[in-house]
Amino acid sequence: MPKTYIYNFCIALNCLLLFLAFFGTHMQLPVALKVVGRMHPLVLHFPIVLLVLTGLWEFFIVPKNANLPASIGNNLLLLTAVSSALAALMGLFLGQEGDYNADILFWHKWSGVGVAALSWAGYAFRDQIRANNLVSKSFFAAGLVAITIAGHKGAAITHGENYLFAPLSSTSKIATVALEDARVFEDLVYPILKEKCLSCHNATKLKGELSLETPESILKGGKHGKLWDLTDPKLGLLLHRAHLPLEDEEHMPPKGKPQLTDEEIKILYHWIKSGSSFKQKVAELPQNDSLAVLAAHVFSGKAEENYDFAAANSDVIKKLNNDYRAVYPLALTSPALGVEFYGISAFKSAYIEELKAVKEQIVSLNLNKMPITDEDLRVIAGFPNLRKLTLSFTPITGATLGELKQLKYLKKLSLSSTKLRLRI
Known about the structure:
- The protein has 3 domains: 3-159; 179-302, no CATH class; 314-414, Leucine-rich repeat, LRR (right-handed beta-alpha superhelix) (Alpha-Beta Horseshoe), CATH 3.80.10.10.
- It is 47% helix and 5% strand.
- The chain has 16 helices and 5 strands.
- The protein has helices at 3-23, 31-37, 40-43, 45-61, 70-95, 102-124, 126-130, 133-159, 184-196, 215-220, 237-243, 262-273, 290-302, 314-320, 349-353, 374-380; strands at residues 325-329, 337-341, 362-366, 388-390, 412-414.
- The protein has a 5-stranded mixed β-sheet.
- Helix 1 packs parallel to helix 5 and helix 4 (45-61) packs antiparallel against helix 5.
- The chain is extended, with a radius of gyration of 29 Å.
């Protein structure tokens, strides 16, 4: 297609972009354009890359190679102009779906429109701009500023404000809370909402007009009503949508997002059932209360433990990993290792024997449903720092279970649905 047609297409895109930027909020988009709008995150990186390439070409490559054909730089400018207009237009379509913070969306929209307009002008007046070195550098700098603002505001819409610098913020550091000091909502319930729900339901991105950032906004609910209702057999929207089939459009979290675990759903259920207090401490719950039991399990898993053994060689760990066995560190800075087995038909006792290479570092071993034998337990008993061992749904009879007495650090042993005959 001749460049003239592409250039005219670019002009048409920018005209449509400006019209929709000013008047699009009063229009109802067809479903097809909503699909196009959702492609915005896929295409927005192209103009960014092309703008950088254009700058490198114009200011670093061309000055050192004056004989290079000008058509290369012209093509880069034209592609930048077209991709910028398309990305901005798709962004406008996506913004029509609502549920976004109006102030952040305003800056994201107009900075995106600015990038598209500057890119078009850069191509249309390329000869005049290139004629003055100061003008060309200023023009390119303006494009970088506009695309930086657009990117920053876009990240705020998608991930929340201060997303970029959150790791440097003192408020982003995870505090270790002892069980006796923990609060039910703040330390047990809210972390679930923050991890699984807050990316779509915050003050910046109000999907369903619902924010889960504060107790006040949680109690307020969204456009579909309150989040829970003790008079409802399903206890309200929150739990009802969590229990819907994954393929259902109303299932929450949506398909493709990290889903609630069974334990997390139980925590939410018992918290709502018990009156959904925002101030109650875990220690104030009755000892046999379901929520207290769940809290004890969660916080025992969070408890940090200092290990006095050295880390295993990374090459050894890498060699031990295969399609049926995963050997992995339990934390970035911890020497402790966890081991998981997969594939019943492919399991071999030799796979356990091979773990002797890291026997000092194995803290957690999951053999759920694996066809292990009683003899395999003799090998496992030689993993001196083992804390957690899962043997559920295995054919062991318990003939060698007494060997596990050697594991002085063993805290949790799962033996459900085995052929166990105690001989300890």
